[in-house]
C-alpha cells in the first residue's frame, strides 16, 4: 500500500468567503504508475467522511483486477481540505497561533476544495486527466472542476450528485449540525468536543443515505413479540459510534457547510449555462432509491452537459448505492467507454 503523501501549497489559499488559509497541507495517495505518454491518470474526488485511500473505501471498483486497476492506471485521490485525514482541517494547528481553530475554522466551499486539488495537479505536473470521477460530495467537486478547466479532463463520471445542493439536502445537514451544536462539549474546543452530537448527527444522516426497503430488509425483527431493544435502534447507535471513532464534530460541520455551498451556477449565469462549459465525455449515474440526491438531480446535469449520457441504477441501498453497487457501476462504465470509443 502506498504511503500517504503531503503537499504544502506554496502560497496562502484565498477562500471564496474572502478569508485566507495559510500553510495549507493537502494529503494524497497515488496508486499505480504513470505511463510514458502520461495519459492513464484517474483522479478520484472523495465524499464527505472518506479519505484519500480510495482502494480502502471503493473496493470492487478500484483495486487489483477491478475496473480501475493500479496495474493499468495512475490513480490519484486527494484528501479534501477541511477533512482531518492529513489535510488542513479545523483540528490542524493554525500557523499564526500554533493552535487548532476548531469552530473558528473559516467557511469552505466546494470551489475552495477544487482550488486545492488544482494546486496539487499542477504540483504533480499532470496536464491531462483521462477520467475524473466522484460521487455525492465528490461528484460536486468533480463537476465544479470540470466546469472550471474544461480542456483538462477527457472523461467525467458523476454518481449520485447534483449541480446545486438542494433545500432538502441543506435541511438534512442543518438538522445534523443542530444536534452537534446542542452538545455542550462542542463549544469547549477540544479534539473530542461534540462527540455525542456527532453520534446523533450520523444516525440522522444514515436515514438519508439508505432507504425504507434497505432497513426493512436488514433491520426487521424476527419476532412479533419485541417491545424494546429493536435491531434498527442498535444499528443507528452502532453507526454513530463508528463515525465518532474515526471523525470529529468540527470537521463534520465544516464539510457539511461546504456541501451546502455547492452551486455551479453562482456567478456563471445559472446552472444550465455553467453545465454547458463541460467538454469532457460525461457519464451521469443516478440511483432509483436515492432520497438525498434523487435521480431528477442527475437527469438535470445530463440534460445540460453537451453529449452527456445518463444511466440509472435500481438499488435497495439508496444513496449509498454508489459505494456498494460496484458491479453495476463497472458494467455502466464498460458500456460508457464502448460508446465513447465508437463515437
Describe the structure.
Its main location: cytoplasm. Transfers an acetyl group from acetyl-CoA to L-homoserine, forming acetyl-L-homoserine. InterPro entries: AB_hydrolase_1, AB_hydrolase_fold, HAT_MetX-like. The active site is at residues 136, 290, 319. Its EC number is 2.3.1.31. The radius of gyration is 20 Å and the shape is globular. Helix 10 links the parallel strand 9 (281-287) and strand 10. The protein folds into two domains: 5-165 and 264-342, Rossmann fold (3-Layer(aba) Sandwich), CATH 3.40.50; 169-259, Orthogonal Bundle (Rna Polymerase Sigma Factor, Chain: A), CATH 1.10.1740.110. The protein contains twelve helices and ten strands. It has helices at residues 54-57, 110-123, 137-148, 167-181, 195-209, 212-218, 231-246, 249-260, 271-275, 295-304, 321-324, 326-342; strands at residues 5-8, 13-14, 20-21, 25-31, 41-45, 74-78, 129-135, 153-159, 281-287, 309-313. By secondary structure, the chain is of the alpha/beta class. The protein has an eight-stranded mixed sheet, with helices on both faces. Helix 4 (167-181) runs antiparallel to helix 5 and helix 4 (167-181) packs antiparallel against helix 8 (249-260).
Amino acid at each position: 500500500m502506498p504511503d500517504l503523501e503531503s503537499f504544502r501549497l506554496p502560497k496562502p489559499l484565498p477562500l471564496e468567503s474572502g478569508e485566507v488559509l495559510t500553510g495549507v497541507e493537502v494529503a494524497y495517495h497515488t496508486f499505480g504508475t504513470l505511463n510514458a505518454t502520461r495519459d492513464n491518470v484517474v483522479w478520484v474526488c472523495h465524499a464527505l467522511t472518506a479519505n484519500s485511500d480510495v482502494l480502502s473505501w471503493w473496493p470492487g471498483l478500484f483495486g487489483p483486477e477491478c475496473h480501475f486497476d493500479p496495474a493499468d492506471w495512475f490513480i490519484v485521490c486527494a484528501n479534501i481540505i477541511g477533512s482531518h485525514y492529513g489535510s488542513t482541517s479545523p483540528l490542524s494547528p493554525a500557523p499564526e497561533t500554533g493552535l487548532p481553530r476548531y469552530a473558528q475554522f473559516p467557511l469552505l466551499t466546494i470551489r475552495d476544495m477544487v482550488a486545492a486539488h488544482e494546486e496539487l495537479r499542477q504540483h504533480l505536473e499532470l496536464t491531462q486527466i483521462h477520467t475524473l470521477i466522484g460521487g455525492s460530495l465528490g461528484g460536486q467537486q468533480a463537476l465544479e472542476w470540470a466546469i472550471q478547466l474544461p480542456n483538462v479532463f477527457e472523461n467525467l463520471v458523476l454518481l449520485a450528485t447534483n449541480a446545486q445542493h438542494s433545500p432538502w439536502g441543506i435541511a438534512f445537514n442543518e438538522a445534523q449540525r443542530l444536534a452537534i451544536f446542542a452538545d455542550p462539549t462542542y463549544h469547549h474546543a477540544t479534539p473530542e468536543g461534540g462527540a455525542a452530537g456527532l453520534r446523533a448527527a450520523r444516525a440522522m444522516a444514515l436515514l438519508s443515505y439508505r432507504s425504507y426497503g434497505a432497513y426493512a430488509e436488514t433491520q426487521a425483527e424476527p419476532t412479533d413479540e419485541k417491545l424494546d431493544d429493536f435491531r434498527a435502534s442498535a444499528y443507528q447507535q452502532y453507526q454513530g459510534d463508528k463515525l465518532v471513532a474515526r471523525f470529529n464534530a468540527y470537521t463534520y460541520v465544516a464539510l457539511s457547510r461546504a456541501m451546502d455551498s455547492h452551486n455551479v451556477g453562482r456567478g456563471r449565469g445559472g446552472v444550465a449555462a455553467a453545465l454547458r462549459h463541460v467538454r469532457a465525455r460525461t457519464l451521469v449515474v443516478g440511483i432509483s432509491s436515492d432520497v438525498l440526491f434523487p435521480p431528477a438531480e442527475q437527469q438535470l446535469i445530463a440534460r445540460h452537459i453537451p453529449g452527456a449520457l445518463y444511466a440509472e441504477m435500481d438499488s435497495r441501498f439508496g444513496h449509498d448505492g454508489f459505494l456498494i453497487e460496484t458491479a453495476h457501476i463497472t458494467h455502466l462504465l464498460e458500456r460508457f467507454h464502448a460508446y465513447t470509443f465508437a463515437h
